[in-house]
């Protein structure tokens, strides 16, 4: 899913340039440029089915590229919070930021790293003297998922507190329910994890931004990678919402463009708890590879697939479900499965900084994107000399590109106050917004599951949109 005090960051490793070039050749990344709980359960325990399994895909015939691992690379020089000059403009009101990040629902596992990333950035901004002479504030609210109206209630509450920007939601489907409410109020909506392609052209009055790349990039990366592994046929189980169908469409297009065939695509809806029919259909199609596009539903779907005799090494997951299942599935259930998460790999320094905020973190997905969202909002407010959402939005593209590179709030705000144009390069990557509020380039991390059902960094692909 992700600038620390120790100057470490997410990255693609010290040998990134060589690795990226090799990967680009092996995966056919030219397409980027051209188109730009508890103990484990068996399938029968999960849904009450019989215990008989079918050898749908007994032994994987796939041969994926060898893992290159990944440990974060060093970030550029950071600023000294104690040396930041005073702001030349003082705001009578502090910059107020809200968040709608998931603490309940099918994406609740993404809440802790995202909230920690936000809180770390707020702490560092205020350690450097805040924005326009005032400490900034953060108010967190739950986003829930699309089965509830929690997000609408949370946004209503935040708007009543006169926030200038709202970080979230994580789910594209949830953001669709509140984007007009937020931007219609003249407030910036800044998602660290929305990937649905349709936000690129949304009528958002120039107030919607995201640090996560469109799923066009993730879908191309995953589709190309599956074909590189030697698959000719692909089966898909897809969440029927904006996130799921958009990502599914891009993966299918990529697979078919490379000469492969999608032999089955089984849909399910948010809130569904029974998945036997979808799994049965996929098993019957006997694809070389299976793509699972879901959120928390993977905890129920994966055991059913394994119970059908499907080799975990033929399973490919996405950012919505590439998570730590060591407490949810029997050991070894996911060993060899792979998944993608936008963003460079986690650096140990950034993890250590996040641990000072939340020592219980087990996932870092979208923590960097959340951290960068707060820094960018704060820098844009400083550049605008205003805490008004509409004025902040006007500066977000500018502070992300075409200036002196800087890597954290203290370093960047020092340059701003010395009269320089800045180019913020964050923990999640170079960012570099286009006119639609989309990052124009990003890394997609590919992770491989170990015997404890934990995703480990395998390789990283960098692409442009």
TrEMBL record:
Query: Where is composition skewed (Low complexity) in this entry?
Result: 51-61
> Which residue ranges does the record assign to the Leucine-binding protein domain?
94-403
Q: Where is this region: Disordered?
A: 38-97
What Pfam families does this protein map onto?
Peripla_BP_6
Does this entry carry the keyword Signal?
yes
Q: CDD domains of this UniProt entry?
A: PBP1_ABC_ligand_binding-like
InterPro entries linked to this entry: BCAA_transport, Leu-bd, Peripla_BP_I
Signal peptide range in chain numbering: none
Enumerate the UniProt keywords alphabetically: Signal
Q: Which family does it belong to?
A: Belongs to the leucine-binding protein family.
Put simply, this protein is called: Amino acid ABC transporter substrate-binding protein
